[in-house]
Amino acid sequence: MITTDLKTLQESWRKNLDALPATPDKIPAFFFGHGSPLLAMPPSSSGGDTRAWAGSGGPLSAFLKEFGPALLNKYQPKGIVVFSAHWDTSGERLGPRPRAMTDYGDENPLLMDYYGFQPELYQLKFKSKGDSALSKRVVELYKQAGQLARLSPKTESRGRDGRGFQGPGLDHGVFVPFAIMFGESFTSIPVVQVSIDASLSPEANWRLGKAVAALRDEGILVIAGGLTVHNLGDFASFAPTSASPAHREFDRAIVAAVEVADATQRKEAMVQLTKHHGFRAAHPREDHFIPLYVAAGAGEGGDVKVVADIYGCETIAFGL
Known about the structure:
The structure is a single chain. The chain is 33% helix and 18% strand. The chain contains ten helices and twelve strands. Helix 6 (202-211) crosses helix 10.
């Protein structure tokens, strides 16, 4: 059953956040709903169910405001390595290109990789820093796992910016939710973004997460962002009150799969999600779904907990 009442959702996620073990020597890996630029738009009575659910007045925004401080208090991370649905490299379709990770030094630029939004969404702020030592450590781990990897400096464009130029930077799947989670100025610990595997293969991206699992023992928070329902051709799919039965059934299937107790059976159930009858309705392209497997790979071998069961944007802890 999908819960839509904000008070009920809050009570549930607060209980789950409190129950997360405080293990700074082995930080869980997380998949989280990174939302969209709608999270940064002022609450409005217009926009229908999607704006009410996915916007700044909705449950995801409310959760992220509590999620960020909980992560910092529970784990005191020395750094954050983040994967986003909005950056992919390598993979079978593109050939053997290296994994890329930001190496931006004292301040991470922002890549506002969205188009046609209100002017104020191109004035968003999120001040953070990188760390070359952490970026190089991630490269080292990928090479140890037999994968190509390289640094991506500020001089290298990551793609098109909605402000009208090509540029580097953390994409909106990172800076929009992180600004809510950690505040517009967050310079106490470094943030490094890593690309996902463009093959969009569950197995390939599981291996991607597994390769950096050692970071969890080194005080680094590994977190992967996406959405469990993401169909830009069907905006009704983003809210449970307007989504089709296929969308809602797929959302419930995800929760059921990650809650399988046996680790081997859980992985099989998760991989089989791409064959669910509602999968393509929820994900015409699976880029927003695949980060789930990165987090699962990074947290392989431990227990799993759905921290926030918010339709379309669940947050799940792996490796408890």
